[in-house]
Amino acid sequence: MIGIVSYSTYIPHGRIRIADIARAWKKDPAEVQAGLGVIEKSVPAADEDAVTIALESAKSALSAVEGLSPESIEVLFVGSESHPYAVNPTSTIVGELLGIGNNYLAADLEFACKAGTAGMIAIAGLIAAGQAKYGMAVGSDTAQSKPHDVLEYTSAAAGAAYILGRERIIARLLADTSYSSDTPDFWRRDGIRYPSHAGRFTGEPAYFAHVMGAAKRLFDITKTEPSDFDYCVFHMPNGKFPRQVAVRLGFTKEQLAPSLIVDDIGNPYSASSMTGLAAVLDIAKPGEKIFMVSYGSGAGSDGFIFETTGSLKKQQTVRQQIEKKTYIDYVQYLKQTHKI
């Protein structure tokens, strides 16, 4: 059986209240917060990027497994849409600083907000084929957004790292699937600093079509239904979409609530659903089942079913990282994100 051996997240300490962004642009804070379902978001420090954030989460994931050396990692995939270099891989920088050595497969992945979960599926396949014993998938982003664009209210920063393998499993991977199409709801051309998006088009034909497509396929493959699961996790571009898709699929508020990190830190793109999964693992008990579907614009979704084991151990939680924060104002936010 293949599954999660270890996991960890890193959330930058910086926070900005959505109300402060709204006031800076003469918008009604209450209306913006109600429309997006987000209270505040995480902000990277001036010296943090997708590499440093990936490294922090990866280091913690490794140290959480007693006796597992860095050299044991034979695959390292880093998914992001904010890789700091157009040519120069994030994955090899992270691998070098982790001390993995040279005998590993490294690759940077891009698929908007599901680049990290694409890495999880690829690594599970390599392990199943006998090509690797342990692999690490990381989702890390310092999400980009143009000032005064609606994305500015939710684009956030975080990283999540997962070690997968056949031994020391804390959550078995029972099933996975993917659902993809050419649906250009969000894009950024080479050389362009900020992404563009199709507004309301990002909802029904993009997010909802793909998340529900992957979810229903997962139900069909496994002959399961929402009541068979203890928790559900969905990609969180804002506070409304995951709640709406959970209701449409038949999940309850109680199944979804533990994963909803978006309310407090916004949307850290590739780290969104992976951090939501970590928040669930933080509180899960042995023998509980987790239903998870990511989403990446362009568009596609990856679906997973996990079942926790008795090896699941308590560690620093996502909630603790969320609560460790320092508020900044809008001008400082612009400085830290290198917009001024």
Q: Share of helix among residues? A: 25-40%
CATH superfamily: Thiolase/Chalcone synthase
Widest sheet: strand ordering = 5-4-6-7-1-8-13-12-11
**What's the number of structural domains?**
1
Summarize the structure.
The chain is an alpha/beta fold and 340 residues long. It has helices at residues 18-24, 29-36, 50-63, 90-98, 115-128, 203-222, 241-249, 253-256, 262-265, 272-283, 318-323, 330-336, and strands at residues 3-10, 14-17, 40-43, 73-79, 105-109, 134-142, 157-165, 171-183, 186-187, 196-197, 231-234, 289-293, 298-308, 326-327. The radius of gyration is 18 Å and the shape is globular.
What does this structure look like?
A nine-stranded mixed sheet has the order 5-4-6-7-1-8-13-12-11, with helices on both faces. The protein has a three-stranded mixed sheet with strand order 3-2-14. A two-stranded antiparallel ribbon has the order 9-10. The model has no long low-confidence stretch (mean pLDDT 96). It has helices spanning 18-24, 29-36, 50-63, 90-98, 115-128, 203-222, 241-249, 253-256, 262-265, 272-283, 318-323, 330-336; strands at 3-10, 14-17, 40-43, 73-79, 105-109, 134-142, 157-165, 171-183, 186-187, 196-197, 231-234, 289-293, 298-308, 326-327. The relative contact order is 0.19. Helix 1 packs across helix 2, helix 3 runs parallel beside helix 4 and helix 6 crosses helix 7. The protein is built from twelve helices and 14 strands. Helix 4 links the parallel strand 4 (73-79) and strand 5 (105-109). It has 340 residues and is α/β, with parallel strands linked by helices. It has one domain (1-340): Thiolase/Chalcone synthase (Peroxisomal Thiolase, Chain A, domain 1, 3-Layer(aba) Sandwich).
